[in-house]
Amino acid sequence: MTHFFSSRTGIILTGCFIGVFAALLSVWGNPANMGICVACFERDIAGALGLHRAEVVQYLRPEIPGFVLGSMIAAMIFGEFKARSGSAPAVRFILGIFAMIGALAFLGCPWRALLRLAGGDLNAVVGIAGLTAGIAVGVAFLRSGYTLGRSRPDNQAAGLVLPAVMLLFLVLLVADFPALLRSSAGPGSMSAPLVISLAVSLGVGFLAQRTRFCTMGSVRDVLLMRDTHLLSGIVALLLSAAAVNLIFGRIDFGFTLQPVAHSNHLWNFLGMFLAGLAFCLAGGCPGRQLILSGEGDGDSTVFVLGMIAGAAISHNFGFAGKPDSLAGGSLQVGGVSPYGMAAVLIGICLCIFIGFAMKERKI
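Below the sequence we write its predicted structure tokens.
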């Protein structure tokens, strides 16, 4: 089984599983082209907890706990749950904040960029180009000696902190805890049935842990080592999601008025450039960070918490992108506010500074 999961067949089947069920989750109730989006779902969780005031994106999504708990189950079954931490946690927290600011400027994480493209949203091409460019800059820093240092073994209980929090979230969701906020309109009001969402996300978490599935890692490996192993899983995700959308008649090619998306190309590119650079400097895309946190990685937990904080900051300060809309029959192109533009540019500058500053020094 271990050999199967590490094989190219294993990574391709994992990509197909994620692509098929991500597309089906939209069919079953999740927002269009947003069957799975780690950034969007963490933003919704931040809203459900009252950390931001954007009423249309508030829901304690069960998929995020499912990814973490599915990963934890796999890691424990195969003896890979190892609590560790201590690799520049403050830097990782800041990277998580700005990764989320960049992702929300684009309106999606790398997985959602692929799902948007699979649904015909051509703005995703611009976003993926920005993501790739950001990762390429991050790879240049890696080649020049960038490192956040090594994690150290920690108490096993410390590795269970985020899985325990995620389990608590599920209990609160199932119990319909009255203090949780829930959107009555907009993306936060749209969801697949709880049991289905949880079952799919547990499966995704399990498979992603076994195969090391990572969007950022796929681009990094091609640039660093010309290794296409992880990339084959990403291509499988895209093609399988497109096949499901084709079957259900959910493909609509174009740039404007795509679901929860804007057609401001410059800020789609720069938002994902920032996100890709931050992901590379932190060592994984948001999905991979959740999977690592389920394995007991406290450094990834800090990054995840940084992304949730970044979601709150983005919406409380008006940094997040706004979708295209129709007003009086005319197209209103969405995009990023001047404050959001400044936040993205500051984030890029800060990430570049971190890339130069965090180089291994020989003593």
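The chain has a mean pLDDT of 96.
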